[in-house]
Write a structure and sequence with these properties.
The complex is a heterodimer of chains A (338) and B (332).
Chain A (H helix, E strand, L loop, with lengths): L8 E12 L2 E13 L4 E5 L6 H8 L8 E10 L2 E2 L5 H7 L4 E4 L3 H4 L6 H12 L4 H14 L5 H4 L9 H13 L5 E5 L7 H18 L2 E5 L3 H7 L2 E6 L2 E7 H6 L4 H8 L50 E4 L2 E3 L3 E2 L4 E2 L7
Parallel strand pairs in A: 3-8, 3-9, 6-7, 7-8
Antiparallel strand pairs in A: 1-2, 1-4, 4-5, 9-10, 10-12, 11-12, 13-14
Chain B lengths: L3 H6 L3 E14 L4 E16 L4 E5 L6 H8 L7 E6 L2 E2 L5 H7 L3 E4 L3 H4 L6 H12 L4 H15 L15 H13 L5 E5 L7 H18 L2 E5 L3 H7 L2 E6 L2 E7 H6 L4 H8 L39 H5 L5 E4 L2 E3 L10
Parallel strand pairs in B: 3-8, 3-9, 6-7, 7-8
Antiparallel strand pairs in B: 1-2, 1-4, 4-5, 9-10, 10-12, 11-12
Helix pairs in contact in B: 5-6, 5-7, 6-7, 7-8
The chains are: A alpha/beta (338), B alpha/beta (332).
Amino acid sequence: MLDGTEPVLDVADLRTVFRTRDGGVYAVNGVSFSIAPGEVLGVVGESGSGKSVTMMSLMGLLPSPPAEVTGGRVLYQGRDVRTMRKAELRRIRGGEIGFVFQDPMTSLNPVFTVGFQLMEPLRAHLRLSKAKARARAAELLRLVGIPDPEARLDDYPHQFSGGMRQRVMIAMALSCDPKVLIADEPTTALDVTIQAQIVELMRDLRAKLGTGIIWITHDLDLVAEIADRVMVMYAGQVVEHGPVGALFADPQHPYTRALLATRPGVGGPRRRRLRVIEGQPPRLGAPPAACPFAPRCRHVFNRCRVENPPRMPVGEGHDVACWWDPETDFPRREPADA
Amino acid sequence: MLSAARAARQPLLSVSGLRMHFPIFKGLLRRQVGTVKAVDDVGFDIARGEVLGLVGESGCGKSTTGRAILRLYDITSGRIELEGEDIAPLSGAALRAVRPRMQMIFQDPQASLNPRMTVGSIIAEPLDEHLRPSRAERRARVFELMDAVGLARGFANRYPHEFSGGQRQRIGIARALALNPAFIVCDEPIAALDVSIQAQVVNLLEDLRAAFGLTYLFISHDLSMVRHLADRVAVMYLGKIVEIAPREALYRFPLHPYTEALISAVPEAGGRRRARIVLRGDVPSPLRPPSGCAFRTRCPKVFDRCHVETPPLTDLGRGRRAACHLVGRPPA
């Protein structure tokens, strides 16, 4: 979907550090990506790879201190979010850019009715009257497939099931017709049957409203189904990025390949043994000077231990940050210096 | 005394008519206002060395089934035969005597390991409880177990918080193995772990099964992992088994509409091989289950009979059983 459409969100070289008593933790180290209207970008990686922190940083949602966004540019519809005034940022956040978090029980306030919480952004961002906000809130609940929406507005979050609560969160994120929806593991806590419902719902919404969706997950199988493009993160960096078809058919980074091999499927031939990725992601006390995956990599070269590979193009819209070339098993040739 | 041939044919575990009902109390006088039939007439066999997968959505009763079999509850009714002995009516010292033969691996290693005990003493606790070993024996056995699950011996004096999720799960597994059990209930053992760690723990469970001839009841909502690990799979819905079949048969050719929908809902990276069936609505409240077939409120193939008559779990041959009006044959 990158056929000349202007990106609605364009992020370049984003960097975030957590300043702690034990020194800095470099969580995001130069992340760049963009998303076009109506496009779904899947973001995958292990816990601690910086997926969530990246998304929180670009909207200034991390508490500071300890978090500090130390560099990068975040353009929303051509305007730099990082230099925006607070009031303008607030207008965009929760309005034009919606968020859905993993755990709906901790993101919904238990002491207010679902209706009240749905109406709040409508009144704050769209300045709707109480009656109009209520009507719109009911419409939103109907949109996400909650039966008897008028009556359910007066219910409290605990009166909804897990899947319903997640749908309420999505309704809330969609309330002001967002241009971008950032969904952080929105279905991880849910059963597969409910996940399938949410996936259908999101597909529908992106078709109807042209919302650009950033879907963070650790489930590669899910990404294969929902995403147009995929971004694989490791140690706060993008290690591979590309169209979903190319990335799954021809994964380039050893980390992407390993992630794909750790999962058995419900179809296809059954593997005798699951591939494991030995070791753990690094805790980054400094920005990585060498390839952060080198200690766990089975294709490591000497160069990987001294020089962090840049993102190099390997195909149409497909790039990888790795010195190993899976085709030749030799080091990859660097793109000619610009 | 059983003959060797008979012992080989006898299932390690045979469960029949298992019911676990929880009363619901309400109001000032705590009057009983209803019953949740968390497990309602569940039965299956597991052969020695076999892995039975138990799948279903949250709240379907799969964990309660596992806990009831290990007699962590006083069950409402049913038979639980472990190596030919019915352990359902046992209590007190008699129950305690069979506990070493059956163990459990829990979902959350964080919550199931005492933070104030060292790894060594956590693993040794079942030994202290049941065998009263000498100090040297105890130490030797703890090291043996740590070797088996791939934990360095030097960790014995450390505390659980110093370990990652995958390592903590190894500690839990070592503890479960301490008394040489024949049967282990694995209750969502990988659900709380990161993807890259899940594969390590699953491989370890397979290695241990081969090395010690273990039999597992593997409870999980992860259908791909169950397909990888289990020999046969049982599918639960609202407290009942709706289908049970050998692994490949179940995944290739599910007979119950619920099994079909469940498998079709799992995302597949290698391209979709079957049409997705999106179920409408949520699981009904177990306090007020629907009349007739419990699945009828979400079933895409529902017809008149499903509203009034509960389909029994019917033997369909070739190791397959399903509870659906559509799959049985009309009486001759």
